[in-house]
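Name: Chaperone protein DnaJ
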Amino acid sequence: MSKRDYYETLGVSKGASADEIKKGYRKKAKELHPDRNSDNPNAEAQFKEANEAYDVLKDPEKKAAYDRYGHAAFENGMGGAGRGHHPGQGNGDFASAFSDVFDDLFGDFMGGRAGGQARSRAQRGSDLRYNLRVSLEEAFSGLQKTITVPTSVGCGTCNGTGAEGGAEPVTCPTCSGMGKVRAQQGFFTVERTCPTCSGVGQMVKNPCADCGGAGRLEKERSLSVNIPAGVETGTRIRLSGEGEAGLRGGPSGDLYIFIDVQEHALFERDGVNLYCRVPVSMVSASLGGDIEVPTIDGGRSRVKIPSGSQSGRQMRLRGKGMPSLRGNQSGDMFIELAVETPVNLTSRQKELLREFDDIAVDNNPQNDSFFNKVKTFWDSMKS
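Structure predicted for Chaperone protein DnaJ:
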């Protein structure tokens, strides 16, 4: 039985480039792999046929011989085979061909190819998070605060190398510094993290007695942090290089401080604006007058209440709110009136209120308007 043309086997034209040949083989390798074609008894043979074709066409010398003589180039010891074996013999040829596209097929899943270079022994330290609660007054004025952070710091005994006396690590003999090892499993070449060096690519012969070879120690560290005025809940402050120390001399991570501003007993915050709900007596709301209200800076402001004020009425104090975190402007403070109904009335007070109610004319505009609408509603329902 005559063999199929190698180009036809890979589904490419005779003038295909090396990249096109490689892409054709990748496609066929995925399409014809026996694991994906358990119901096709010919899948394995077709898979090997594609491997044989690629083993020849990927090699410039073999490809040139095949283009000139066809399959005869590799029969009867004719020159051009170039490597002393028939292209279709053994599994070694398959492993050679398939390993060329292994990283393309599975590189992302396995973490990418090593690229022929040793992985760095140093690893960057982890970033750390610290939650800091501040009062509204502290958020208004800003502050300098000292915090204690449990973290990893570089070992001073070995200068972060992890080796006794600060000696440099040696190349891992198992993976030759690659950090990964490859093993042949049937048709597949499987790449795994080196079990000897755990993927670092280097080893410490004599680990430091203090840090056990890690190059860092667990320790609490005190830091002075500047909290700017105007911070809000959720504000994130980044301190570069103040996170966990790197492994074996690697760079330190960062420290992220997340601000949580506590609720206040008097003020409610909305961005840069503040709201303060102030209770006023029925008499003050009716006759008008002045009241004194607190401000977030610890001061006092006098506010004039117009006569006839109702609950919910707001008055603005410009510039008495929170400072803007970005810029020199400040928000406003809004005073919201809450008119109180008198309680615990004496007999005389009740008598006076009844007298007032008897002579009250047009003193309750909202009351009169509401019940006029109610009367209109009921009349419309009757009709």
